[in-house]
Amino acid sequence: MKSRPPLLVAAGVIHRDGQILVGQRRKGDRHPYKWEFPGGKVEHGESPQAALIRELREELQIEAKVGSELARYEYDYPGGSSVHLLFFAVREFEGEPTARVFEQICWADLYSLPSLDFLEGDVDFVRRLARGDFALRLQR
Fold first, then answer.
1. Residue 137 resides in a domain
2. String of b and e for 37-49 (b: at least 16 CB within 10 Å)?
3. How many Å apart are CA 111 and CA 94, to the nearest integer?
4. DSSP state string for 31-99
């Protein structure tokens, strides 16, 4: 049996004033009420950065400038689905984020992120981010 390649996903670590923007999935979504970083699937022929810009426009109604890549890894969910996650810093954007596809969005303090119920694939990154493992310059 041939397994499918991992789904390529670009996620934005949007930060301002010392806080990170996260979104909570809706009740009817896969993994309901779990928190995640905004972003989504990279389409065929699209760069991860272009996909992230498109996804942030669709999900939050913002025009973002994608910064440096913070991390990338694969995660295998129970049940067989696999994702290749790429996390990018997003420090500059135009517009005020609106929860178009989320139950809610919130600006959370970096160090409080691990207390939120994140998607299983994001948990390791969230812990490392809160520990300061990445060169994420937060303005206060």
1. no
2. bbbbebeeeeebb
3. 25
4. STT-EE-SEEEPPTT--HHHHHHHHHHHHH--EEE---EEEEEEEEPTTS-EEEEEEEEE-EEES----
Question: pLDDT of 38-97, one tens digit each?
Answer: 999 999 999 999 999 999 999 999 999 999 999 999 999 888 789 999 999 999 999 999
> What CATH number does residue 61 fall under?
3.90.79.10
**Contact assessment for residue 67 and residue 89, using Cβ atoms and an 8 Å cutoff:** yes
For tokens 């390649």, name the residue: 5
Q: What is the mean pLDDT of residues 111-126?
A: 95
- pLDDT bin (cut points 50, 70, 90) of residue 139 is very low
In sequence order, which residues have a C-beta less than 8 Å from that of residue 106 and are 6 or more positions away?
21, 22, 24
The answer to whether residue 140 is domain-embedded is no
Full domain range(s) for residue 117: 7-131
